[in-house]
Each structure stands twice: as C-alpha cells, then as structure tokens.
Amino acid sequence: MLDRDVTLALAKRLLALYEAGTTEQAGESYRVPVAHYIDPARFALEIDRIFKRAPLPLALSCELREPNAFKAMDALGVPVLITRAPDGTVRAFLNVCRHRGAIVAAGGCGKARRFTCPYHGWVYDQAGRLAGVYGEEAFGPVDKESMGLTPLACEERHGFIFVTLRPGPGLDVDEWLGDLGPELAALDLGSWHVFDVREVEGPAWKVAYDGYLENYHFATLHKNSIFKENMSNLMAVDAYGPHQRVVFAKHTLPALRDTPESEWVPADHVGPVYTLFPCMAIAGAWRDTALVSQLFPGPTPERSRTVETFITRQPAVTEDDRRAAERTLDFLFTVVRDEDYPTGVGITQALTSGANTEFTFGRNELSLHHFHRWVDRLVAQE
C-alpha cells in the first residue's frame, strides 16, 4: 500500500486548491501543431525514436504469475513472446520462428514449457532456445545455438514487465522510471489479480493519450458518468521524467474540512491516474481495483488500439465479488468506448479539415504540456 503520508499530502493539496477555487496550473498556455498528430513523417519518427527505443510496459507481472507462464502479443506490428521460466526469470523474444518466420505462439496468456511452430514443427523452450527440429535428419544440420528465438531486452520492475521492441541493448529501466519507481513498488501491483482483458479501437494515439491526462472534460463529456462522482477541472500533477501522476478529487472532498485529519481516508476522496510514457495509464490502484490501459499506435497515424486490463487487489472468488468487479469494469470500459474514443475519433477525422493549425492547451492542462514536450524531446533525438 502507498504510504499514508503521500496520499494525505495529496488530499491536502487538492482540498487547498478546491477552497481557492482553482487547480494546479502552468505559467502559460501551450500550443501543439495539429500536424504533429497526423503527419506520416512525424508519426514514423515517433514510432522509431520513442516506441522502438523506450522500455514499454507490455505485461503485468500478475499476467505471468506462475512458472512456465507466457504472454504472446502484437505490439505496434511487432510479434512479442514474454515468458517466465521455472526459476522465475522473465524473458522476451520476437515471436518469430527462425526457420521460415511463422508466428510461434498464438496470442494471449497461458502456460507452456515449450513452443512449437505451427508451420514446420520447430520447437523452442522457455529460454528461447531451439530445442527440436522436426525431421532433422532429412532437413540437414542446424546450429541450434545460433537459431534460438531473437531476444529482446526485458526487465521486470514493480509489477510490470518492460520490453524494448528493437533487438539489442535496452535502456536502464530503473533510470527510465526515476523517482516514480519507489511509488510503483509501493502499489505492489505484482500481487494483484487479472479479472478481465478487453480491447477497443481508438483514434490517433496522442488524441487518445491526451484524454487520460486531464479532467477538464469531465463536466461536459462525462456529465452523466464520471462527473457524477468526480470533480471536473481540479487536479494535482507530479512529473517523473516523462511519466506522470495526476490525482483527481471526488465530490466528497469538501467533507474532509469537518473531519479530524487522523480520521481521513484519502483514497475515499482522491484518486490517481499514473501514466507510464509512452503507452500506459493506470487508473485507480489506491483502493481495491485498477484499470490498466495500454495504448498502441495503429498502422497509420489516425488509428490506435487500447488493451484494457482490469485488476483487483484480491481475486474475485465469490459470485458477489465477480458481479461487483464486472459492474465496475463495464462502467469504465463503456466510458472509454462510448464517450472518450468516439469524441477522439471525431477529433482525428477533423484534423485535416483546416479548422485548426494548432491546438492550445490551457494553463490548467499542464500535464498535457509535459507529455507533448517529452514527445518533442525524444523525436528530436537522433
């Protein structure tokens, strides 16, 4: 659990902002060219210099809880296989047979000691080694030592498995996470449990990501859903390198004024969205449920795909537990599918209309300033 002093300080911050009738703000507004959302050349640089270089949180540790667990997935068109060996070590590979390039393991999570290519039956073990060649005597000599699955840099930290999509050395994950690492560790998400996984097609990836970083839109876009419980246009923002913690307040926040501080339960009145740049948002995690959203750019600038994994602190064992978890997931998923993303798709379709050459992010949208500055910074790196 996160240290009470941390959540208490954040509740005080938000309460002070509420009483002052404001929210945390940047010194000035910030502009982003509309072309940065849809220009194909810019999009190619974002994929190459951000998504192919950064350690991406492609799996939750609790998705590969047991020995011989695996997760096979598509990440930006790159087939990835993540495994957990009997000794607990996690590894990642290109999910591509070294014989003729077929996908070795079908998508999804499961358990297997070995993986057999469905095309010609070549077999690989959990460590990616080529363990068997069908009809080897007739096929001819094969140097098994050099024909294992192509490894990808992979490190497990704080309940997440980070993978670098381009073969070769990866960035240091601890350095990449910086001061956010200890807070993620305190959440202990590795001990949580996966309840369900759903996918939804989305708009341009930065249009989608923008929506996770602010609550300025709650009172309008979500007036009949999220806004019923959560305030709009009130948030506390902390940045950790390219990553952020954005904390929102519920309508119950003012009740803390008349409650002794020793009796405060901050998580009942404020809650976070953590963003792990460039592709993950974690909503919740201070109470007993969290929605983990992985945002992947699509094959073109106008499209994206979001994988939403709903996790619970304790396994949903009883029928009541399952019904409660299902209700919460249905609510959150519906908000994204029926409110956020249709609006984002409309924005994406209108980007080429000529109505705007720039988007203006207000002083109250400082988390968006930070996100887009980091995108610009990394795109500019050779």
Can you give a write-up of this model?
It is built from 10 helices and 20 strands. With 382 residues, the chain is α+β, with helices and mostly antiparallel strands. The protein folds into 2 domains: 4-53 and 179-379, Alpha-Beta Complex (Naphthalene 1,2-dioxygenase Alpha Subunit, Chain A, domain 1), CATH 3.90.380.10; 56-170, 3-layer Sandwich (Rieske Iron-sulfur Protein). A hairpin with a 4-residue loop joins strand 17 (280-284) and strand 18 (289-297). The mean pLDDT is 96.
Write a brief structural summary.
The protein has about 375 residues and is α+β, with helices and mostly antiparallel strands. Helix content is about 30%, strand content about 30%.
Name the descriptors:
single chain, 382 residues, alpha+beta, Naphthalene 1,2-dioxygenase Alpha Subunit, Chain A, domain 1, Rieske Iron-sulfur Protein, 7-stranded antiparallel beta sheet, 5-stranded antiparallel beta sheet, 10 helices
Structural class: alpha+beta
Order of helices and strands: HEHHEEEEEEEEHEEEHHEHHEEEEEEHEH
- Work out the helicity level: 25-40%
CATH fold naming of the largest domain: Naphthalene 1,2-dioxygenase Alpha Subunit, Chain A, domain 1
What would you give as the CATH superfamily of the largest domain?
Naphthalene 1,2-dioxygenase Alpha Subunit, Chain A, domain 1
